[in-house]
């Protein structure tokens, strides 16, 4: 990982959340909001159907960085994101990352998580330790 420099891309992460993910994630996260679990309720409040938890989407950004660091979660020192769109089950999420600073034993990245043209996370910044 120490070979990365300004403008380089980290390996892309692609994941497709299955139809049952929002129910499982709701239970695991303690977030029972029915916009994540009940399609009829979600439609009644103007959504096209159930939506992914924002923290699930953020977790995929963290996962992309952890994988780029050889699987060591301790390498991810800082992560901030902006939730900018709704994510949906059964649509592939693509996490792309560009190095915006490198040196002093660390990388700072700019990351986007998108489903097609829908950028569900933008302006995400992470810091990875190279040591």
For this entry, give a set of tags:
5 strands, 34% strand, five-stranded antiparallel beta sheet, 131 residues, Thiol Ester Dehydrase, Chain A, alpha+beta, single chain
Can you characterise this structure?
The protein has helices spanning 21-29, 39-44, 54-68, and strands at 13-15, 76-83, 93-103, 106-115, 118-129. The chain has a single domain, classed as Hotdog Thioesterase (Thiol Ester Dehydrase, Chain A), CATH 3.10.129. It is built from 3 helices and 5 strands, in the order βαααββββ. The protein starts with 12 loop residues before the first strand and ends with a strand. It is of the alpha+beta class and 131 residues long.
Question: What pattern of helices and strands is seen along the backbone?
Answer: EHHHEEEE
- For the biggest β-sheet, the strand order reads 1-3-4-5-2
How confident is the prediction overall: mean pLDDT? 95
How helical, in percent, are the residues? 10-25%
Number of domains: 1
CA radius of gyration is 16 Å
**The CATH homology group name:** Hotdog Thioesterase
Intertermini distance: 10 Å
Q: Give me the oligomer status.
A: single chain
Highest-level CATH class: Alpha Beta
CATH topology: Thiol Ester Dehydrase, Chain A
Percentage of residues in strands: 25-35%
Uncertain spans, ≥5 residues at pLDDT below 50? none
Indicate the overall shape. elongated
Count of individual helical segments: 3
- The helix-and-strand class reads alpha+beta
Q: Which sheet architecture does the biggest sheet show? A: 5 strands, antiparallel
Q: How many beta-strand runs? A: 5
In the CATH hierarchy, what is the architecture at level 2? Roll
């Amino acid at each position: 990982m120490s070979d990365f420099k300004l403008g380089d891309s980290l390996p892309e992460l692609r994941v497709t959340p299955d139809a049952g993910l929002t129910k499982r994630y709701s239970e695991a996260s303690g977030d029972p909001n029915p916009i994540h679990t009940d399609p009829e309720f979600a439609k009644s409040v103007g959504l096209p159907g159930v939506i992914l938890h924002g923290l699930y989407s953020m977790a995929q950004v963290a996962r992309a960085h952890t994988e780029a660091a050889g699987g060591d979660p301790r390498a991810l020192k800082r992560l901030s994101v902006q939730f900018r769109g709704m994510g949906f089950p059964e649509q592939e999420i693509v996490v792309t990352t560009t190095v915006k600073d490198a040196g002093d034993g660390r990388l700072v990245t700019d990351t986007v998580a998108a489903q097609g043209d829908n950028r569900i996370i933008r302006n995400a910044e992470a810091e990875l330790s190279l040591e």
